[in-house]
Amino acid sequence: MNVLRGLFYVVKRDELALICVIFWSLWWNRNCDFHNIKKRDASELLLWVVDFLAEFQHTQQVLIPPIISSATLHLSVWSPPPGKLKLNSYVAVRKGSQMIGLGAAIRKDNGLIVAAISKPMRGSFSAELGELLALREGLCSAKRLNLAVLVSEVDATNVVSAVNSDVSLFGDAFNVLVDIQALFIYITKTKSEQVNLSIYGQDINDRWCAEIHVRGVKEKTRQIRSLKCRNSKLGD
């Protein structure tokens, strides 16, 4: 963060944007190791950075309303319903380190960020457990700020696979999932027998989404195996 703050005063706006996208692409490539996703090589990474930044700058210059296409409708799932909030959660894991980084941002349906957190957590965790911890931390922030989050986006399909497992989870992962359910029930202020939390995510080639069915707070046992997930190629 101090590096970016220093660059803000010494480089031009376009140069700073390029640096930020490069940092972002390197972070994404590193996370691919932990999620068993194919990484981009150096040439592919550089080409992606240039193309992404050019596309972003082009959209910033367009003043006319965009034409609604099937692709636009296909990606509407990434936005929460009008007037609702969406939670994005992330984790950064470094092999051999006894520390992970947890991050989360809560957005309105127009993309405006209303809250964000970033914090380290000491300990050695798997990438999957780290993703669950980040989601729980985001929901804790929503609880503290009294923000009713109905949609959550995470980075890895293995998080959904863990929740959707036919075998009940044990240990830390199970405890974190129970916390996630309880937090969601609290922040939605619902007393109904069943409420839903939609979780969306994206790999390099696949788009997937899932929905956790959280049972009412009066039930002593909360089962987590009722999550449904569907997969489809981007652009279908």
TrEMBL record:
Residues 91-184 form the RNase H type-1 domain. Pfam families: RVT_3. It comes from the Eukaryota. One of its GO terms (molecular function) is nucleic acid binding. This is RNase H type-1 domain-containing protein. InterPro entries: RNase_H-like_dom_plant (IPR044730), RNase_H-like_EbsB-rel (IPR052929), RNaseH_domain (IPR002156).
